Amino acid sequence: MQLSGTPGAPKERPANLAERIYQQLKDDIFEFRLLPGDRFSEGGIAERMAVSRTPVRQALYRLQREGYLQVYFRSGWQVMPFDFAHFEELYEVRIVLELDAVRRLCERPHAEHCNALEQLGRTWLVQPALRLHDGREVSRLDERFHCQLVEAAGNREMARLHAEVSEKIRIIRRLDFTQSARVAATYEEHGEILEAILSRRCEEAQLLLRTHVEVSKAQVHTITLHMLHSARQRGGSGEALGIDPVSTAR
To answer: Higher model confidence: residue 164 or residue 50?
Structure first.
């Protein structure tokens, strides 16, 4: 992670600087360079990035609001430990919302959501030679697939809640696309779900979707544990990044 400033560079606007620090720290959490449970100081980040504490504080509190960090007044910040029970609950909420969205899509006149489903079809109902292999991009498209299904069902509050849940589980969900076999399976399974919805086979579509999400959830649980163990073994932590770990007030 590049934590040092660039001498002689134009002065960055405070809002842009806070956004850059936020994105960088979030990426470090997602990539397990900052591990669950790691503790560090606000001052340590500011020093390493050669910036004032103000944009650092803005970025940290934003990450706290999103559930990635917790603050210990007088003794620094900590990356939130993984709570797999909480992730299980979020996945349950997600499944409930998506199953209801599938029911609505199968019951409503096709013309009301055909554009959304046709757009999804152009992404997922493609020949193997045209499929993407970049795990990060497929992860992004996978999240959009499920969000667009809920959006197409027509209930804006359901779509809003589903988007919030999707954001909260993104940190582990994206790990499902670190394996090429899972990328290929996602294309196949999304295609089957879409075809069942288009044919108004509601029970089949719901079963396919539930199975798809449950398998993915099991995969990311296993991969997360493995990656956490591997990161600990190679020393992937705030200290390895040059962020001073803290245990007392600074």
So the answer is: 164
Residue 87 has pLDDT above 90, yes or no: yes
Number of domains composing the chain: 2
Residues 41 and 124 in one domain: no
Cα–Cα distance for residue pair 165/60, rounded to 1 Å: 21
Q: Cα separations (Å) of 179 from 110, 152, 184?
A: 35, 29, 9
**Contact, 78 vs 72, CB < 8 A?**
yes
Closest CA to 149 of 119, 128, 122: 119
CATH of the domain at 152: 1.20.120.530
In a domain, 67, yes or no: yes
Judgement on whether residues 96 and 126 belong to the same structural domain of the protein: yes
44 is in which domain, residue-wise? 14-81
Query: Cα separation of 56 and 62, whole Å?
Result: 10
Q: Which amino acid is at 234?
A: R
* Residue keyed to tokens 């409503």: 108
Closest C-alpha to 159, from 170, 146, 168, 172 = 146
Binning pLDDT at 50, 70 and 90, where does residue 95 land? very high
Show Cβ contacts of residue 230 under 8 Å, excluding neighbours closer than 6 positions: none
Rounded to whole angstroms, how far apart are CA atoms 215 and 74?
42
Cα Rg, the chain, nearest whole Å: 21
- pLDDT band of 80, cuts 50, 70, 90: very high
What is the pTM (predicted TM-score) of this model? 0.79
- List the beta bridge partners of residue 58: none
Q: Does the residue 186 lie in any domain?
A: yes
Give the H/E segment covering residue 80.
none
